[in-house]
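Ticket #4471: structure output looks truncated?

Reporter: J.K.
Steps to reproduce: submitted the chain below (170 residues) through the standard prediction queue, then opened the result file.
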Amino acid sequence: MHGAASAIGRNKETPMSLYEHVFLARQDLSQAQVDALAENATKIVEDNKGKVVKTETWGLRTLTYKIQKNRKAHFVMLDIDASGDTIAELERQTRMNEDVIRYMTVRVDKHEVGPSVMMRKSDRPERSERGERGGFGGGDRDRGAPRPDRGDRPDRGDRPDRAPRAEQEA
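Returned output as attached by the reporter:
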């Protein structure tokens, strides 16, 4: 009886789940080669009865730390509707690809509608526009930029508690 129950379980199709698959490709690849990697991943999913709902290329980005001598990597995200077996096959083939330096697949409850957070990030001002330290002063002064006028403060003139520079050094 045990054999019959397991045979019934095997005949039943595995349910489709939603996944986000992100991979990082080597920095020395061209954009055409990165697109080919994304198409290859799509083909693997579709050959295993899955479906790629959306593909986003996030571009060449600087990594926080070096990975296999790479300071930068091309980031690509795929929204996938597939079974666990399909994802296992995708990860197996991704693991063997020398052009992919990292990958991660996460199961999600639903896919995001519209662009992902990484694509919306460009809506925020660039780091140089808001100052190197998040907009809390000091960021541009390190690069020789003139100090802004501080109209609300009076000129301090000579400070009696300090001797002039020439006397301090002597």
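Triage note (M.O.): checked the attachment and the full token line is present. The radius of gyration is 27 Å.
Status: closed, working as intended.
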